[in-house]
Amino acid sequence: MVQPAWQDPVLLAPESAPVPEYGSGSLADLLPTLVAGQGVPGFGAAIPELTPADRNCVFLIDGLGWEQIKAHPDEAPFLHSLLPTSRGGTGRPITSGFPATTATSLASVGTGLAPGEHGLPGYTVRNPETGALMNQLRWRPWTDLKAWQPYPTVFQLADAAGVRTAQVSAPGFEQTPLTKVALSGGSFLGRLTGEDRMDLAAERLAAGDRSLVYTYYSEVDGQGHRFGVDSDAWRGQLMYVDGLARRLAEQLPPRSALYITADHGMIDIPFDEQSRIDFDEDWELGAGVALLGGEGRARHVYAVPGAEADVLTVWREVLGEQFWVASRDEAVAAGWFGPRIDERVYGRIGDVVAAAHDDVVITASVKEPNESAMVGMHGSLTPVEQLVPLLEVRS
Fold first, then answer.
1. Phi and psi dihedrals of 37, rounded to 5?
2. Radius of gyration of the chain measured on its C-alpha atoms
3. pLDDT value at position 1?
4. Would you state the pLDDT for residue 9?
5. Strand 187-190's sheet: what is its strand order?
6. CA torsion angle 355 357 358 362 (round to 10)
7. Using an 8 Å Cβ cutoff, are 248 and 198 in contact?
8. 1 burial via Cβ count (<10 Å: 0-12, 13-18, 19+)
9. For 123-145, how does the pLDDT look when each residue is reduced to its tens digit (9 = 90+)?
10. pLDDT tens-digit profile of 297-336?
């Protein structure tokens, strides 16, 4: 039905956004569930559909969401064949967490905590101690690790409880701050090729009676950002990683469970003015804004002191038909960042938080030229970004 021109536009209410399944079916619930089944103290089976195994391996494919696997049976025949196994044989996905972005999701995986607790609630967020934006993927500017994320990782706690623990990834990730705050514990084993990672992950899985191995592949996400999930380059990466997953599955030692998941999905955004709203050229959106954080589909907006209410009003009026636009307190109350917000994390969240509902992004062509040029985007609460697989192979 066409809305009469004289009627007010229908704005998206913050509480209408689909909230991640924190506590029962999100990325933060995966490792706690696995190590609970291995007898590590202090953890419970948060994802009740999963059956315990003595040896657990998590293969995280950056950027490969549930919808992408469903849509590409020809390029990913092995992964597609595993869809019915997802989430303990229910054939259902789990959720990433908000925002659906790598730094946030990897911290959720490794700590077993929602973003409101681990404290990496976006791609870039304001550091309340300095007032400057902090890039949590690249860790710029340098920020004290323990102050920013003080909780132990699940890997550390599992290793201390006698579970043989290892991360198998690209060598360059070993010393990154994100690895240290989110994925440290046990052994880090760097291998350049995907094939070597799969082989070593299987070897390390067999090295203990109880073992926990994490391995990672990044280039599905990389090609999606550069060329989009509708590109031949992206499809080529999907075909390659499908072969890696099969290679690892075929080498599982006895009493093992392999879980294949992702940190987020991805959506291609057209290069037109309707789909890409440039903050750096929009005086109305910029009025009263001191800092623009987050990323195109999940923005943290930090207002000049005293302008918080005005910024919220303008952003809601301009974008509220295409974005869920919430104040910090509204986003917290709606549960976007999880059921609990640590005091140290509260000020990192934007005075206004804008999460895309439609196929649209807020770019910043001057301040963020590289990010603004990306084809594939992610971050918001929509199914294509939030839903990730939890495919299972057991031996």
1. -70, -15
2. 21
3. 44
4. 74
5. 187-190, 164-169, 211-217, 55-61, 256-261, 391-394
6. -10
7. yes
8. exposed
9. 999 999 999 999 999 999 999 99
10. 999 999 999 999 999 999 999 999 999 999 999 999 999 9
The pLDDT, as a whole number, for residue 6 is 55
Q: Give how far the C-alpha of residue 363 lies from the chain's centroid of Cα atoms, to the nearest Å.
A: 20
Query: Which residues are within 8 A (CB) of 313 and not within 5 positions of it... i.e. 6 or more apart?
Result: none
Give the 3-state secondary structure of the chain.
Answer: CCCCCCCCCCCCCHHHCCCCCCCCCEHHHHHHHHHHHCCCCCCCCCCCCCCCCCEEEEEEECCCCHHHHHHCCCCCHHHHHCHHHHHHHCCCCEECCCCCCHHHHHHHHHHCCCHHHHCCCCCEEECCCCCCEEECCCCECCCCHHHHCCCCCHHHHHHHCCCEEEEEECHHHCCCHHHHHHCCCCEEEECCCHHHHHHHHHHHHCCCCCEEEEEEECHHHHHHHHHCCCCHHHHHHHHHHHHHHHHHHCCCCCCEEEEEECCCCCEECCCCCCCEEEHHHCHHHHCCEEEEEEECCEEEEEECCCCHHHHHHHHHHHHCCCEEEEEHHHHHHHCCCCCCCCHHHHCCCCCEEEEECCCCEEECCCCCHHHHCCCEECCCCCHHHHEECCEEEEC
Report the pLDDT value the prediction gives residue 253, as an integer from 0 to 100: 98
In one letter, which amino acid is 285?
L
pTM greater than the 0.70 cutoff: yes
The residues, ordered by sequence, that sit 6+ positions from 154 with a Cβ below 8 Å of its Cβ are 31, 32, 35, 43, 110, 111, 112, 185
* Residue 382: closest CA among 360, 353, 356: 356
Cα–Cα–Cα angle for 299, 353, 356, rounded to 5 degrees: 60
Question: What is the pLDDT, as a whole number, of residue 7?
Answer: 62
Spatial distance between the Cα atoms of 224 and 94, rounded to a whole number of angstroms: 21
- Stretches where the chain sits below pLDDT 70 are 1-8
Tell me, rounded to whole angstroms, the distance of Cα 168 from its chain centroid: 19
Residues 239-277 as b/e (b if ≥16 CB within 10 A, e otherwise) read ebbbbbbbbbbebbbeebbbbbbbbbbbbbbeeeeeebb
Q: How far is the C-alpha of 218 from the C-alpha of 61, rounded, in Å? A: 6
Among 93, 75, 76, residue whose Cα is nearest residue 84: 93
